[in-house]
């Protein structure tokens, strides 16, 4: 009887648009002096007008369970389950001057695939965050980042092991509680108590890769109950999602579908950015069978020529503070086979489309939340095979070996290399990081008989089309053109 009453009460709260008191727990917030342990940059954010602070959040977190089997359509019914105490940390990056704050807080679910907290979407899109006056909150939502344990790459070091004196008090009860820990961090951001007096008007959840799998489940199962965030940027998700017990990428063997769509009755805007790697899958189910049409609260950007990871993530993110010269950045966007994350037989995807379009996605979602008008829908990438469960997918390609359809950028419409999200299958990092195969001189002469001037004229036209479509930002135009001119002349 009590169980039935509890379920009925939860349904009533959801129907009335309210939040169950059991699901609206808040954390106690305490500032922590000193420099946080988080791989943000190799440059000084204070020189860019930003302040970095760390806080410990202490409270009781709620776990969830499903009321029934999880359907592939994403319409998951979640119920409150257990509670457990926790202590986690958040890192806050905010403008020092209130006048520079644009009113939006981006709350990132830190990625733990490497065995440590990694701010993956910050790394790819931080230039737009910094120049537009966003505030940013990084959340240690998952257990591995705090306590250590099993991770895919097992390269990183958990917080408690890296600095036991600072982080020894942290305590994570397990990833079944990560969803509510993330909600409580979002509530802390919304109050402004961690923003030095800044008053937020919009709070947006962001996360990449494994974090995107958790956010997919959050959107489908938890958001209808928690109602914390004004929008979601789900960055680079594959076909499946995490389970409510906290296991990432759960599949059919565990009773979860291999391909999960976003629910039809989304509460708030969701923009998801999909690379070629995500679409096809890389030892995981691909997004190709999780597609559904855009609607008033969903936009999907499938970006041609992109990989799940790339040179910019490996190298550019750490040095690019917005003041680097085009010559310095041009070196980042050249083929390389080694990185701190590992090596590959084939040169990694260089990352221009991914980096610059992620910046566009951050701006597009924020504009959507401000105006209520969604960005224009885009074409999906064109498949040569697949598109449904059980059928191996492949991309339709043009004469240059580049994907057809999707978000178009000058690097695929006016190419000097074949860029793909399908990389070295014998290397874990190479598999995720795609490939860049530069064209030889004969190929370049065939494509651009007028030489560099011909190339630059065509490249400029393609770039301006991408800017008009708002997939690339006008602020980046001159930098992109300068880099293109430098790298056209570069010889391997």
In short:
With 492 residues, this protein is α/β, with parallel strands linked by helices. The chain has helices spanning 2-15, 120-131, 143-147, 159-162, 164-167, 178-191, 210-226, 276-280, 311-319, 326-332, 352-371, 410-413, 428-432, 441-447, 451-468, 477-489, and strands at 28-32, 50-66, 78-95, 104-109, 135-139, 202-208, 231-235, 270-274, 298-302, 338-339, 342-343, 383-385, 394-395, 417-420, 435-438. A nine-stranded mixed beta sheet has the order 1-2-3-5-4-6-7-8-9, with helices on both faces. Strands 10-11 form a two-stranded antiparallel ribbon. The protein has a two-stranded antiparallel sheet with strand order 12-13.
User: What is the gyration radius calculated from CA atoms?
Assistant: 22 Å
Helix count, DSSP H or I runs of 4 or more residues: 16
Shape: globular
Proportion of strand residues: 15-25%
pLDDT averaged residue by residue: 92
Strand tally = 15
Assembly annotation: single chain
Biggest sheet architecture = 9 strands, mixed
Q: What's the arrangement of strands in the largest beta sheet?
A: 1-2-3-5-4-6-7-8-9
**Uncertain spans, ≥5 residues at pLDDT below 50?**
1-22
Helix content: 25-40%
Distance between the termini: 72 Å
Class based on secondary structure composition and strand pairing: alpha/beta
Please name the defining characteristics of this protein.
single chain, 492 residues, alpha/beta, nine-stranded mixed sheet, two-stranded antiparallel ribbon, 16 helices, 15 strands, 32% helix, disordered N terminus
